[in-house]
Write a structure and sequence with these properties.
alpha+beta, 98 residues, 5-stranded mixed β-sheet, 5 strands, YaeB-like fold
Length: 98
């Protein structure tokens, strides 16, 4: 498995997505404290977050040095609400919602 993301390009690579989805399947994705706090404010569940990663409406990439944390952004529209899940890399995968 690749050890991170390709931050030489803003384009989302297929292998990056496959590595993330593999982490979801293997249950090695770790949810940050910040993410869990944000979910509780919005009455969301871990399943909502996993569904966003598995069935996104949009995917984008934030590169290091930008105003946002580096990683992939998975966006899903649930009714009138947009759920954004940030997936970063730290030895294992972790997610952080915005």
């Amino acid at each position: 498995m690749p050890s991170g993301f390709d931050f030489t390009t803003p384009d989302v690579q297929d292998w990056e997505l496959e590595a993330i989805w593999d982490a979801v399947d293997r249950e090695t994705l770790v949810f940050s404290r910040h993410a869990r706090e944000e979910w509780s404010l919005d009455a969301l569940t871990p399943d909502d977050v996993l569904d966003t990663i598995s069935f996104p409406d949009e995917i984008s990439k934030d590169l290091p040095g930008s105003s946002r944390a580096p990683g992939l952004n998975f966006n899903r529209h649930l009714g009138g609400v947009r759920l954004r899940v940030k997936v970063g890399w730290r030895d294992t995968y972790y997610t952080d919602s915005d």
